[in-house]
Amino acid sequence: MRDVTKSRRDRLREATMLEIGQTARRILVEEGPEAVTLRAIAREMGMTAPALYRYFDSHRELLRHLVGDVFNELTEYLHRDLKRLPKGDMSGKFLVASRSFRRWSLDHRREYALLFGAPLPGLGHQEQIDFAEECAQRFGLTFLTLFLELWNMFPFPVTPEDEMIPELREQLRRYRDEALGVDLPLGVIQAFLQCWVRLQGAVSLEVFGHLEFALSDAEPMFELMLAELTPKLGLDYRPPGQSA
């Protein structure tokens, strides 16, 4: 239903910004991140490049908006799959989130490269949180929330602080206190990052074709990784398609 509280000008502006985003996404998929320029988008839309500055202040702002939109799409994709599971099925949630992340990434390789590949010029560290950073944090919270839920329901064995590598321990403490702001043992934070390094590392190797020297089908290796991780978190591994 049309929002009658918005003026016709506002609706036209929103529609144009949506079209700009869709055009940028299409160029990204067809030609790669480097091809997503204001000139290319303007040419596709029958506009002039300067006209786009009425909607985005810079090429960098446009790219970060695209990054945010893609992160939101990925997050919603994960949430849709997670909602199909019973609330207390932590084993199922962990496996579904991991497999859904891999599946989306393989189906959207160009988009994955934009989010998790080498940063494009102008997409570096931000002094202030913007739309892209908010969306990236929301995506990250999907997995962190699973860890919090799992820890609160079934605490799993973690490395004691006095057994951690001192340099790593201090970094984990800073990340927990300053970035996450959660009240968790450092061992849980370490386990969270260890799982993310393995999950995202495995997906990245497959998405970028770095396993093709040995594997024509990397799914069994991915499943082997999940089978090794789940018991460390006190979870049960289930092969794909097996119900609870």
TrEMBL record:
- Residue stretches making up the HTH tetR-type domain: 14-74
| Keywords, comma-separated and alphabetical | DNA-binding, Transcription, Transcription regulation
The UniProt entry, under PROSITE patterns, shows: HTH_TETR_2 (PS50977)
Q: Which GO terms describe its molecular function?
A: DNA-binding transcription factor activity; transcription cis-regulatory region binding
Keyword DNA-binding included in the entry's annotation: yes
Query: Pfam family example for this protein?
Result: TetR_C_33
Q: Which InterPro entries match?
A: Homeodomain-like_sf, HTH-type_TetR-like_transc_reg, HTH_TetR, MT1864/Rv1816-like_C, Tet_transcr_reg_TetR-rel_C_sf
Transcription regulation keyword on record: yes
The residues that make up the annotated DNA-binding region are 37-56
What the entry lists under PANTHER family is as follows: HTH-TYPE TRANSCRIPTIONAL REGULATOR BETI, HTH-TYPE TRANSCRIPTIONAL REGULATOR RUTR
- Name of the protein in its database record: WHG domain-containing protein
Q: Please name the source species.
A: Actinomadura barringtoniae
- List the taxonomic lineage: Bacteria, Bacillati, Actinomycetota, Actinomycetes, Streptosporangiales
